[in-house]
Design a protein that fits this description.
The complex is a heterodimer.
Chain A (H helix, E strand, L loop, with lengths): L13 E3 L24 H9 L5 E6 L2 H6 L18 E2 L4 H6 L2 H15 L3 E6 L1 H6 L3 H12 L2 E5 L8 H16 L4 H4 L8 E4 L7 H12 L3 E5 L5 H5 L6 E4 L2 H15 L3 E3 L5 H14 L4 H28 L3 E6 L2 H13 L3 E7 L4 H10 L5 E4 L3 H11 L3 E4 L4 H6 L3 E4 L10 H16 L16
Parallel strand pairs in A: 2-3, 2-4, 4-5, 6-7, 6-8, 8-9, 10-11, 10-13, 11-12, 13-14
Antiparallel strand pairs in A: 1-12
Chain B lengths: L16 E2 L6 H10 L4 E6 L2 H15 L6 E2 L4 H6 L2 H14 L4 E6 L1 H6 L3 H7 L7 E5 L8 H16 L7 E7 L5 H14 L3 E3 L25 H6 L3 E7 L1 H15 L3 E4 L5 H15 L5 H21 L3 E6 L1 H13 L3 E7 L13 H10 L6 E4 L3 H10 L4 E4 L3 H8 L3 E3 L17 H23 L10
Parallel strand pairs in B: 2-3, 2-4, 4-5, 6-7, 6-8, 8-9, 10-11, 10-13, 11-12, 13-14
Helix pairs in contact in B: 1-2, 1-7, 4-6, 7-10, 12-17, 13-14
The chains are: A alpha/beta, B alpha/beta.
Chain lengths: 455, 461
């Protein structure tokens, strides 16, 4: 196997475990001209906030930014579905010249009259950052006019990458959840419930975890931001603990809430059997243990007994297969490495769009020698390393799917397009089933040109 | 989920959009650029634009969509993007080695005023490689405008005038699927007319599975062909909105006569296309085409009673919507609401407006249609609430309305994100019309079956 190297200027972003001692470079700007798989600040902000179901999400910019994000998140709702519409100020040339503030104010007025929302988010896009519309002022005036909350999200696309958008979203959430009155402030940390951060309820995943925790005896106060509502978020500071699933998007908010309100936080993962059990145990312990821990153990035993034979059945079919992972955040990559291990599948390439240094260190400690680790990869690199490493399967998002298929390799969506929950015990079975379905599909027999024609 | 859409119209004056029926210029430019052989589209702006366009096109075509980005940062936005673009050009040729880079701008780079031709001139371009560009500000027009601008750029950069014209046609297919482009080429082949099609995304976004990833697939219009387009005897622009600008530019630059026709959806528009080729190249229409046309008429005869008097709402891109409306009328259907998100051209102008074109077509059904250019799907939903229809035809986003109002729905246009195969199969030409008849009749009859009481449920329909 060739040493993992690539295009000029990209060498520092790629390492092979066991071969190089140099640190992997990450959290840096992409190289101009790259076919990057990354997105922008607005994208990061939008994906985090969009699952707030009863809010108007008004995109201030030309039409594209709103069009491409219309209902793409895949997060499900148990209540209102206002968030599944696409609202845009549709800026035109004259707005660019004369400023878009009036149009924004008028659009808010129209939407408030039509939908009577409790909450409006206004997102700034690249161009709004350049023409300098004062979102704060427009939001404040509109809030006063209508007596509802109007929160600006500072998400001009060019001001960093997706991770900066997560911060913009967290800033907006921090404002939203801040206690408005002294009476509210007195309630901080007083409920015996917890907040669940960084689960976007894709395919209903937050519902599964809510159910598990209910069985353990733990109430979820608010989910940020899966199936979220204005009312739920307004009382978020009453919880006494924050648990974080997606660290990339939410650790910043958790930090701010700890600093401002003294609400502690801990990292959890509900991907795979081992992580799920470990997380349930740690949550129970953090909330005092005792009967909570007992119920957690009962749940773990009960659910494991149910799903372990199923997983083992798949494991027997999958042993020896090799997987490549290219996902958004480092946290997800770490969980996937462990989950593949449960299935007897070896991860031979692992990369992320926005992984952080400490996450890459964890990844390095988990994988076997010879595994390629890379940050901010492009399609050529994915192709090169998947082929060289002999990966049978790629885990990624929408843009990676056809790439894997063209290479005649199996694929799993671990992003917005997934159609079944991958969290918890039920999710672990779904994951194993999906790995099996795609790896062992008969279509691969026809994959090579002329493959079936001559035999 | 559209329960909140009120039936009562109230004037909307903000200019904002609720559930858009269009998207922005750069994605159209990116798609057009993919139709040039060995070309890497390059998005001069922030990473998000490029990422979104690739994502959207990937979902529609289900093929890898390659494009690079200038990866703008705050610094570039303040000091201009010249350095980013020059670095990008250098890196792209070094890393991906395309023959051509097609640069398009975004709202950001348009607003900060980057002078793309000057930047390209100063860029380090290897021998034998080419960079061209189109200005595609997102705050004007729509994705159709962007497609048109990039196609026009192919003419202004590459077409070369020739004193003696060749017996060949330029075919500009417009913003349609590769399956449609293949069908248009098949018809031209059957007619025996030599042609240059540009852009041509067939063989680029509908590539075969070989077990290998090819960054620059076999398809696409070659640079030599683009140069030679100036020597053609005729340009046939299919679709006024997506194709006529390039055709006019070619007429001006290289004196190639141009004719703009409707996108050949349905029997009349396909006839017009076939006859235009016949007139210019004095070819007899071959029996194979006559036979196809006859089969289509036969099918339309066999099924006309399913369609007659059925009310239909049609939305999407203007050229496609125009063709679909004309075909619906020829099937005996009544277009009740017709809407495009793309701004529609001035009423009364030389080139006409979307509203006027559609009014003329839809009027033949004996019904005055509600017609809107630059509209959104909230407006369409309100119109449907006030005058219900039997069928909705449009892109994927129509599924919300179809569900809310319980209307049979046929997916045609861009984007279609929730079904596959569509981009391989044509809706243009006689064969495409046959497919449309099948799709529309299927939707209507499935609905009839679903709603039939037990005593009315029949085997033969």
């Amino acid at each position: 196997m060739a040493q993992a190297v690539a295009i000029d200027g990209r060498q520092d972003f790629i390492t092979t475990k066991g071969r190089q001692i140099s640190r992997l470079k990450c959290d840096d700007d992409s190289i101009a001209g790259a076919v990057s798989q990354r997105a922008c600040v607005y994208c990061g902000a939008r994906v985090v906030l969009n699952p707030i179901t009863d809010a108007i999400h008004l995109v201030h910019g030309p039409i594209g930014c709103a069009s491409y994000t219309w209902d793409i998140r895949g997060s499900l709702t148990s209540g209102e579905d206002l968030y599944r519409n696409s609202f845009s100020t549709d800026l035109k040339e004259r707005d660019i010249i004369f400023g878009g503030e009036k149009k924004l104010a008028a659009a808010i007025d129209e939407l408030v009259a039509k939908y009577s929302p409790k909450l409006v988010f206004i997102y700034s896009t690249c161009i709004v950052g350049v023409i300098g519309d004062d979102l704060e002022a427009v939001a404040k005036a509109a809030a006063n006019r209508h007596g509802i909350e109007v929160i600006p999200v500072q998400s001009s696309g060019f001001a960093g990458n997706k991770a900066a958008g997560y911060r913009a979203a967290c800033d907006a959430l921090f404002r939203l959840t801040a206690p408005a009155t002294p009476a509210e402030a007195a309630l901080v940390g007083k409920d015996r419930s917890i907040n669940y951060l960084g689960d976007f309820n894709l395919a209903g995943e937050a519902w599964i975890i809510r159910d598990y925790l209910a069985q353990v005896g733990v109430d979820i106060n608010a989910v940020f931001t899966g199936d979220s509502s204005y009312g739920e978020l307004k009382k978020a500071t009453r919880a006494r603990l924050n648990i974080i699933q997606c660290a990339g998007s939410m650790v910043y908010l958790a930090g701010r809430m700890e600093e401002a309100y003294g609400i502690p936080y801990m990292h959890v993962s509900f991907l795979g059997l081992a992580d799920t059990a470990d997380s349930l145990r740690r949550i129970a312990a953090a909330l005092g243990g005792g009967s909570l821990s007992e119920r957690a153990e009962e749940l773990i035993a009960r659910e494991t007994a149910k799903v372990q034979p199923v997983i083992d059945g798949y494991r027997a079919k999958l042993a020896g297969k090799k997987a490549a992972v290219y996902v958004g955040g480092g946290f997800k990559a770490i969980s996937l490495i462990k989950q593949f291990r449960e299935l007897g599948v070896e991860v031979v390439m692992v990369g992320t769009q926005t992984g952080r240094k400490e996450e890459y260190e964890t990844i390095d400690s988990l994988v076997a020698d010879g595994t390629v680790i890379l940050d901010d990869a492009n399609p050529s690199e994915l192709e090169k390393f998947m082929t060289e490493q002999g990966a049978d399967l790629l885990v990624g998002g929408v843009k990676e799917r056809p790439l894997a298929y063209k290479l005649g390799r199996a694929f799993i969506d671990h992003n917005h397009d997934r159609k079944h929950p991958l969290s918890g015990y039920a999710g672990a079975v779904n994951f194993a089933a999906e790995v099996y379905t795609t790896l062992c599909s008969p279509v691969w027999r026809h994959a090579k040109m002329g493959g079936d024609l001559d035999g | 989920m559209l329960d909140a859409t009120p039936k009562e119209f109230t004037e909307r004056t903000s200019g904002g959009m609720i559930n858009p029926a269009k998207t922005c210029q750069p994605i159209g430019a990116m798609y057009a650029a993919l139709g040039v052989h060995g070309c890497l589209p390059h998005s001069h702006g922030s990473q998000g634009c490029c990422s979104y366009h690739r994502m959207h096109l990937t979902r529609h075509f289900r093929d890898p969509i390659m494009a690079s980005t200038s990866s703008f940062t705050e610094g570039a936005s303040v000091f201009g993007g010249g350095a980013n673009l020059k670095t990008a050009i250098k890196n792209i040729f070094q890393i991906y080695n395309p023959d051509i880079i097609a640069v398009h701008t975004t709202c950001l780079t348009e607003t900060i005023g980057d002078d793309i031709p000057s930047i390209i001139k100063d860029a380090d371009i290897p021998e034998g490689k080419t960079v061209f560009h189109a200005n595609t500000p997102s705050y004007q027009g729509s994705h159709i405008t962007g497609f048109s601008n990039m196609t026009k750029a192919m003419v202004s950069y590459f077409a070369e005038a020739a004193a003696i014209k060749k017996e060949q046609a330029n075919l500009i297919p417009g913003f349609v699927n590769p399956g449609d482009m293949r069908e248009i080429k098949r018809i031209a082949h059957l007619m025996g007319v030599p042609f240059i099609m540009f852009p041509d995304t067939s063989g680029v976004v509908d590539t075969p599975m070989t077990g290998e990833f090819v960054m620059f697939p076999k398809g696409g219009t070659k640079l030599a062909e683009l140069a030679d387009s100036g020597a053609s005897k005729l340009t046939v622009a299919l679709g006024r909105f997506a194709s006529s600008d390039a055709a006019e530019a070619l007429a001006k630059k290289c004196r190639v006569p141009a004719v703009t026709l409707k996108t050949p959806i349905g029997i009349k528009a396909t006839d017009a296309f076939v006859m235009a080729l016949r007139r210019a190249f004095v070819k007899e229409v071959p029996w194979a085409l006559e036979e196809e046309r006859g089969q289509l008429v036969d099918i339309m005869t066999d099924t006309h009673f399913h369609f007659h008097g059925k009310k239909v709402a049609i939305f999407g891109d203007p050229d496609v919507v125009t063709g679909l409306t004309e075909f619906a009328v020829s099937l005996g259907m009544v277009p009740v609401h017709v809407l495009t998100g793309t701004p529609g051209g001035a009423i009364g102008s030389d080139v006409g407006s979307f509203e006027e074109d559609i009014a003329a077509i839809a009027g033949q059904s004996g019904h005055k249609a509600n017609i809107k250019a630059g509209g959104d799907l909230f407006a369409l939903h309100q119109l449907i609430k006030n005058e219900p229809v039997d069928l909705l035809i449009g892109n994927t986003y129509g599924k919300y309305i179809a569900r809310a109002e319980d209307i049979p729905f046929v997916r045609v246009g861009f984007p279609i994100l929730d079904r596959s195969v569509h981009s391989y199969l044509p809706v243009v030409g006689y064969r495409g019309a046959m497919r449309l008849v099948e799709m529309i009749a299927g939707a209507l009859l499935d609905r009839q079956d679903r709603d039939a009481a037990d005593e009315d449920f029949e085997l033969v329909m």
